[in-house]
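A.,

Following up on our hallway conversation. Structure tokens first:
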């Protein structure tokens, strides 16, 4: 039985990973996000899929280093060993040229996608010390591989995740911790609604006339990555909807 900690499990890719791993029988799930009511709903879904799955949920804002340290330090004894960390919590806010960018949006993206990922990793790595299956999966993005118009700060944060993914692989090598980046193109989740500050119509338009990836598509990849034998690590995956060639070239109906 392997214990998986998923950040940002209340929605989208994180939620889909929790559901997928719950269906596979050999994972215990530590699930966190800011919206605990969503985590409660997810726990009910998991119990429906597999009543045997052990689940522990907790509120965590990854932007707050003290909160990350204290909350992880105060987990119940039976949840203090982690085998797999899925660094998934993240967001985009705004899609404006740099001169028109909102500083609050920039801070939220940098604080969540870069600093939050660092805080969680720093405090979870010691919790992996006794694990035979230690593995960190970082959710990057096509935005971490290229830069698209008005993507400026979001792209910068995901380029930072790309760099940190490589850095973790070097720094954690002697500890035997696998490190994998999964970099998706367009996945239909709450992502665009958050990017456009709750504008549902604008968010919906992003996925009009095409079949985007789903959270389940990414969860299937996570499952495959975790199913490789001990001596095999998948370093980096770039996965796109078939209709998306790169960050900007998309074939819509
Ligand atoms: P969603 O908006 O559906 O989910 C984002 C998750 O992150 C939510 O569970 C949210 O939970 C959590 N989160 C956001 N801020 C914080 C915070 N400060 N502390 C803790 N949790 C937080 O989007 P996705 O599922 O699409 O995004 C997941 C990851 O995948 C992100 O890192 C995103 O950048 C990346 N990604 C997404 C793509 C897409 O097209 N959708 C493509 C490529 C990468 P809560 O609000 O409850 O805290
Ligand atoms: C999310 C996908 O194309 O909006 O990382 O950057 S994209």
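Then the amino acids I'd put at each of the 253 positions:
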């Amino acid at each position: 039985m392997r214990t998986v900690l998923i950040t940002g499990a209340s929605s989208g890719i994180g939620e889909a990973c929790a559901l997928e791993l719950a269906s596979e029988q050999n994972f215990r799930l530590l699930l966190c996000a800011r919206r605990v009511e969503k985590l409660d709903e997810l726990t009910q879904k998991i119990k429906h899929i597999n009543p045997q799955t052990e689940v522990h949920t907790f509120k965590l804002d990854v932007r707050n280093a003290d909160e990350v340290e204290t909350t992880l330090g105060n987990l119940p004894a039976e949840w203090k060993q982690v085998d797999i960390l899925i660094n998934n919590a993240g967001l985009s806010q705004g899609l404006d040229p740099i001169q028109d960018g909102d500083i609050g949006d920039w801070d939220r993206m940098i604080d969540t996608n870069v600093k939050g990922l660092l805080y969680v990793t720093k405090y979870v790595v010691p919790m992996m010390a006794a694990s035979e299956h230690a593995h960190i999966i970082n959710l990057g993005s096509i935005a971490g591989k290229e830069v698209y118009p008005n993507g400026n700060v979001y792209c910068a944060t995901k380029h930072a995740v790309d760099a940190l993914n490589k850095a973790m692989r070097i720094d954690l090598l002697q500890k035997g911790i696998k490190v994998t980046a999964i970099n998706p193109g367009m996945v239909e989740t709450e992502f665009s609604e958050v990017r456009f500050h709750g504008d549902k119509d604008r968010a919906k338009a992003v996925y009009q006339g095409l079949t985007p990836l789903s959270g389940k598509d990414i969860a299937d990849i996570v499952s495959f990555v975790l199913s490789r034998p001990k001596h095999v690590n998948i370093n980096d995956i770039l996965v796109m909807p078939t209709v998306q060639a790169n960050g900007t070239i998309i074939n819509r109906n």
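The beta strands are 2-7, 27-33, 55-59, 84-87, 135-139, 178-184, 236-239. Curious whether your intuition agrees with the design.

B.
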